[in-house]
């Protein structure tokens, strides 16, 4: 029964995403990136920090895409394809983990604040307002430089900011659900507060939660790319943003278009795929969108 | 006695003042008895049942001289005990507009089982057996347990709610306008259903039935209470209340209701409208609309007078009742009250 309902859940989710053309596109892109991220060490042709030499024994510096180096090389003669593959892994990890953590934080703050109301609502929402007042990137940079340039600190720093939007949206939805008759009926049945929050209100806003999960992942990826580009990333774990940072400090941004193009395209692809998936969920949460 | 309430007061604190939604209500329900409460909208019926099952907001002030369920004091009982031991096992609720009382994201059967699970430790098979038996009793197919609420019609949802209220054999079922919003045929079927289930079930529950539809109450109840502006005006055995009403308000209500026996009779409404519950009314709350009012009525609050065993009237002029009954049938009598002019 339990296993079946979990399977049911995933079948429904896949159905929602693939019912929409954009959703299908987004899902396939993400699936592709996911596979690449998972298999990174096995499919990357070179080590990402290895300076390569061509057949003549010369250092392969700033080579444009060719058969030997499909995506070109960097100023240090490193293979961009291998860097891209490993960067996919790190970017994916950061995006996924901070996206999920931030939706958990945001959903809980929203639900508790909507359900209990009064002082708790006041405190939690004012706290959210304060977080809203923080400028995204500068705060991220301060946090990262405070904590240290480690991948997990980057994740924590992103989570600290990204949850705020989901908290507000979840709260407003939960406020509406809380007033519905069936919540009173559940209370009359003797349901405890927690049971009402997580057993009765949350399932009713699930499409919204999934929508904001993908939004949050997209936001996290963008935030990470921004911070990395400015040099605030884990030097041992290369990300797409980190690659752009390396390009910037090498000063070859005007000549090495390939070094610039691949990470940028991938960031755009991943973020827009996530947005496409959220659109598919949005149509479930708000069916009127379908008619447009 | 299943439920004993004495002098129950539920006050809501608002910005404009204190709203006395229930102002000194005394009510008791015996084993196996159906008690009907009737009254206009906003007279405190729903507040009364919400107070009983503690669904009033925390800001409401609830006081009572006595509020006992099966001998246990349910006014001072800790929240957790009340929720776990009294709710649903002792007192269950068929909420107003059962149409919306089912959570749209769960199967109906699951919701019934949740109610059982929350209070007992039956395993899944037992739970399903209980729900199946009750679905059968209310005339729903067992297969419908797997359906979602939106697949049910209004009448079916109502019946599912009634089934759900009975899963734990409660001693008291509170029905808050169980037939509102349904057409007369479905209404009739549900009322018959309730009666049948009571006959079938081994431990027949007492029922507190709340509605503003007097005919529903007349059909179902053993005893009837008439509420007005947060107070219980009159309560008596059903037949007695209809045949020998004492309170002028009950007399007025009787006039305002069509009778099958006298089709030609003109319906007489009571002029005016109920008082605002924020107002401080020292005397009788009905005085302003009452055609038989005397100066004394406005000064002191009438006592709950037991005119006959089991027949309680909230009026000081019960000794003039013969004269009232004679005059009440005349439209002019009602037009003479102050609220009419």
Shape of chain A: elongated
Mean pLDDT of chain A: 86
Task: Name the biggest interface.
Answer: A-B, 18 and 26 residues
Q: Give the biggest sheet of chain B.
A: 8 strands, mixed
Number of strands of chain A: 0
What helical percentage do the residues of chain A reach? over 70%
User: What's the helix-strand series of chain A?
Assistant: HHHHHHHHHHH
| Major beta sheet, strand line-up of chain B | 7-8-9-3-10-11-13-12
* Tally of individual helices of chain A: 11
> End-to-end distance of chain A, in Å?
39 Å
Overall pLDDT of chain B? 86
Describe the structure.
Chain A has helices at 2-18, 21-43, 80-116, 118-132, 136-147, 151-178, 181-188, 193-201, 206-229, 240-250, 257-285. In chain A, 73% of the residues lie in helices and 0% in strands. By secondary structure, chain B is α/β, with parallel strands linked by helices. Chain B has helices at 45-52, 79-86, 108-117, 124-137, 154-165, 184-200, 214-220, 238-243, 248-255, 295-299, 321-328, 331-335; strands at 3-13, 18-29, 34-38, 61-63, 66-69, 72-73, 91-94, 172-176, 206-211, 223-228, 231-237, 305-308, 311-313. In chain B, the strands form 2 sheets. Chain B has an 8-stranded mixed β-sheet, with helices on both faces. In chain B, helix 6 (184-200) links the parallel strand 8 (172-176) and strand 9 (206-211). In chain B, helix 5 (154-165) runs parallel beside helix 6 (184-200). The radius of gyration of chain B is 21 Å and the shape is globular.
Question: Can you lay out the helices and strands and say which pair or pack?
Answer:
The complex is a heterodimer of chains A (292) and B (341).
Chain A: H1 2-18, H2 21-43, H3 80-116, H4 118-132, H5 136-147, H6 151-178, H7 181-188, H8 193-201, H9 206-229, H10 240-250, H11 257-285
Chain B: E1 3-13, E2 18-29, E3 34-38, H1 45-52, E4 61-63, E5 66-69, E6 72-73, H2 79-86, E7 91-94, H3 108-117, H4 124-137, H5 154-165, E8 172-176, H6 184-200, E9 206-211, H7 214-220, E10 223-228, E11 231-237, H8 238-243, H9 248-255, H10 295-299, E12 305-308, E13 311-313, H11 321-328, H12 331-335
Parallel strand pairs in B: 3-9, 3-10, 7-8, 8-9
Antiparallel strand pairs in B: 1-2, 1-4, 1-5, 5-6, 10-11, 11-13, 12-13
Helix pairs in contact in B: 3-4, 3-5, 4-5, 5-6, 9-11
